[in-house]
Amino acid sequence: MPMHDWTKVEAGIYHDFHNVWLLAIRKALNGGLLPGSYYALMEQITLSSEADLLTLQAPTHNGIHAKSGRGVRSSAEAKPAVAVLERQERIVRRRTRERISVRHVSNHKVVAVIELLSPGNKAGARPFTEFVNKAVAVLDADVNLFLVDPFGPTARDPNGIHEAIWKATTKRDAKKPRKPFVLSAKKPLIAASYCVGGREITAAVEPFAIGDPVPEMPLFLTPDEDYVTVPLEETYLAAWPDVPRIWREALEK
User: Fold this and answer.
1) DSSP per residue over the chain, as a string?
2) What is the pTM of this model?
3) Which range marks the domain in which residue 82 is found?
4) Which terminal residue of the chain, N or C, has fewer Cβ atoms less than 10 Å from its own Cβ?
5) Is 135 a member of any domain?
């Protein structure tokens, strides 16, 4: 099923679908995609006031590690199939208690956050800056980050949310200047996944467009870039029937 143009409907209609889509992603992850030592939970913390999906690490006494799960792959063996895969030295900031408080169960370490952006995240300079700062705070806490932006660029992020986060997260190298990520007008939507390991950060980025299938993306689990592929198209399709008929018809026109 192609990605719909969610600007055709009120923000509240998308927000309702947003939550159902996140539940479908959680179901896929907990249904066997994740290794037995990981599980996914819904939360209302970290990147926005709306529901986020957190992937948490269960206790390690069961002896199960990341590579033992169905669908887990190593980036060293199989690079994620995305348009852009870049790695750069990151800015390492001093951590605060606020930045490491994204935990739901005591002693269960958060390893990744999944966020589906909403119109409100980029509705003005203040919410946009808050979103970018909180995304950076997640990465500063050594938590991997997975984003999907179905709404495209604004005046605040003319080359998409990835470029804004990347500039705020990585160091500039005068000797080897990085070529900026330029978002194509033909593919203005973004799916991005970030892996933090030591002093480096890796980004897997896939631009797509309204009318395209939602791309599959890697969800990084470890600093060594072990990942599972999140079936975004499959979960989008699973969530779509829950959209009220009147709004499905509006979006399909």
Assistant:
1) -BPP-GGGS-HHHHHHHHHHHHHHHHHHIIIIIS-TTEEEEEES-SS-SS-EEEEEEPPGGG---GGGSTT-EETTTS----SEEEEEEBP-PPP-TGGG---SSTT--EEEEEEE--GGGGSSHHHHHHHHHHHHHHHHTT-EEEEEESS---TT-TTHHHHHHHHHHB---SSSPPPPP---TTS-EEEEEEEEETTEEEEEEEEE-TTSBPPPEEEE-STT-EEEEE-HHHHHHHHGGGS-HHHHHHHH-
2) 0.83
3) 6-252
4) C
5) yes
